[in-house]
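PT: before anyone asks, these are the final sequences, not the draft ones from last week. 560 residues across everything. Please model them as a single complex and drop the result in this thread when it's through.
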Amino acid sequence: MRFAYNTLVYGDEPAGDSIARLARFGYDGVEFVGEPGKFDVAEVRDLLAAHDIAASSICAIFTPARDLVSRDAAVRREAVDYIKWCVNLAAEIGAEAISTQVAACMKIRPEDERSIELDRAVEGLKEAGEAAGEMGIRLALEPWNRYETYLINRIEQSLEVVERVDLGSVGCMADLFHMAIEEVDIAAALRLPGDKLYHVHFADSDRAAPGHGHTDFRPSVEALLDMDYAGYVSFELLPASGDPFLMIGQAREFFDEYTEQAITYTKGIVAEVEQAR
Amino acid sequence: MVTFAASVWIWESPPTDEVLERLVPRLAGWGFDAIELPVESVGDWAPRHAKDLLSASKIGATVCAVMPDDRDLSTDDAAIVASTQDYLRTCIDIAAEVGSSVVAGPIYAPVGKTWLLAGSEREEVLGRIATGLRPVARYAADHGVRVGVEPLNRYETSVINTLEQAAELVDRVDTVGIGIAADTFHMNIEERGVSRALELAAERLVHVQVAGNDRGTPGGDDFDWQGLAAGLRAISYEGVIAIESFTALNQTIARAASVWRPLAKQQDDIAVNGLPFLRQLLS
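LR: through. Structure below.
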């Protein structure tokens, strides 16, 4: 199992410090925030090579200006172009997957009928997915919990859209924090997409490092091993505020402490599960 | 011994006399000991009429306070604090009339009011809330009622997310009329350990609301039910266990609780299938 850590929670820290930290704690990959101007691509490539660590994935950021299901065609255009920009970024730094959503984060009011909005999601993901496919990059459609979106809360809802898009480059994503709110059986939901599961986020029930809350990671690890899941398990850990962006970069325990705990604890669970087989 | 209730919100919002006429006998028929009655607006339902319905069906009631934008004890607006205190005293009167020993709810701030509480501001806000709650809690005690402070998850409030934070507020108010109301849906997100949190609340715990981790039917879901049972046993909790869920069919309550899909095949399942599970777990 390959592990990465989402640098989102490090805020404005220089990329070099983030990369060095993740290499030091034995990570295989670095998940980068997909925001134009956030870092220098050439410099990051050099840093990754110097620390012998890969770019795992791009965490795409969906704002009201980047919304695939918006009633406004210009906003939908912006969202598709943004994902394509993330695809290029991924290709440049060697990342494999992009965590993707179809509506703005924290948007909980639909603009149109669900079926109309899902049609727009499929249309946008098709165009962005074709661009991703040409570059060998995968889009992973992530369900968020009910407070962050109204549209795709469960894996089964993500899979429904993915099947309609019907491209090898577009699959599902799973985040255990959101799943602890939305799925009554987390491991069963992980298994649902089968080989269409392209990217996974781990976090404990309270979004802190695994081991901090009360999520039982064993059934999830078993599911991923059974599925021969070949993507990254990336830790997306965030402070306990309603707007996940409110406290980013301020909570120091998410730097060294949780970065080390996340991989150490999870590797321990994987070893336990493998030993029991 | 614990007793079991189900909230009106599983089916309807707001409760009305007509809604209670339909629901009270049904809940009694399914074997519930009580019905949970939210007070969205005073006057939505008549306490005297409810009392008659409850007597006829031989079940009890629990009362919930509801906190929309204009009810707030965390604000420095004295007029809003005063009208919120008036509202809470009315809820206490209603509870006393229908025979509920608690008024539970996030009675400190409006649901959905979230902001970054930096360092000294948290202290200031908690002090203000405690000051606002003290006379309310005394009024409750005088009427044989306890006010239950309910922590909500991070997306619904930034003031009190955990039972530990609720305990801190309760200890500050320091009056017998106040305690903690625990809700398993919020606990699942915010507590590091379910049993540990309940043990910390200890004798302060006056009310418990339950639902599956997705806020659907209790049982057959991902919530740590064994942790709940162990925690309640450890503190010898002897109050009400109320199933609280929300219908996706009523747009107002669905939006207020961020329920975007039906949480059960039919709403009745949440109560009818939840009750035997809870009885077996906790009796």
